[in-house]
Write a structure and sequence with these properties.
Blueprint: E1 2-7, H1 11-21, E2 27-33, H2 36-46, E3 50-53, H3 62-72, E4 77-82, H4 87-96, E5 100-103, H5 108-119, E6 124-125, H6 127-138, H7 152-162, H8 167-174, H9 178-192, H10 197-206
Parallel strand pairs: 1-2, 1-3, 3-4, 4-5, 5-6
Length: about 210
């Protein structure tokens, strides 16, 4: 079962998502939250696999909540589910560690597919969001503050991460154990000083590894 946490300040949205996801054979809503602080607390208490995160909420916004969940629970995947395509929402959410970014007009089948996709270790962005991320990547970027000193194998793994491959697929491509891939990914994130695979992938694209 994919354990899902719903974070949205509108009760009707939370109830609608909870009712819909309850119809899926492979999903279970373990908690919901009405603001960012509740979302962070619920993520720590219930250890969800996937969080559906609104970005505009009281007390703590979704971007900060994503950042804190990514730091506290790296295994939890967060999908930003919002009505906004503004640059001050899109890029900060991706930088904070969102594995997906969808608009609230997404169709139910696409939402289910997105949850399964990010749970499998892939990234999924709304096409308009993907275009903005690519624009950001294409823009001149300052050199990293320090040489991360990735090994040749880590560079191979990172290149495949940047292509959206899950650990199992990377293991197959390189002929190594999936457990070994997980170790490489953990070391890569540490060396690059980033929170998750999405940020590592952006780094790889900027540096020409993918």
């Amino acid at each position: 079962m994919i354990r899902v946490l719903i974070a949205d300040d509108h009760a009707v949205v939370r109830q609608g998502l909870r009712t819909f996801l309850a119809l899926q054979d492979d999903m279970e809503v373990v908690a919901d939250a009405a603001d960012g602080e509740e979302a962070v607390r619920a993520a720590r208490e219930h250890a969800p696999d996937v969080v559906l995160m609104d970005l505009v909420m009281p007390r703590m916004d979704g971007v900060e909540a994503i950042r804190r969940i990514a730091a506290a629970r790296p295994a939890t995947r967060v999908i930003a589910l919002t009505s906004f395509l503004d640059d001050d929402k899109v890029l900060p959410a991706v930088r904070a560690g969102a594995a997906g970014y969808l608009l609230k007009d997404v169709g139910p089948p696409d939402l289910v597919r997105a949850i399964r996709t990010v749970h499998a270790g892939e990234a999924l962005l709304h096409p308009a969001v993907a275009a903005r991320v690519l624009e950001e990547v294409a823009a001149p970027a300052p050199a990293p503050a320090a040489d991360p000193r990735l090994t040749p194998r880590e560079r191979q793994v990172l290149a495949l991460v940047a292509r959206g491959f899950a650990n199992k697929r990377i293991a197959q491509e390189l002929g190594i154990a999936e457990k070994t891939v997980k170790i490489h990914v953990s070391r890569i994130l540490h060396k690059l000083g980033v929170a998750d695979r999405t940020q590592a992938a952006l780094w790889a694209v900027r540096e020409g590894l993918a």
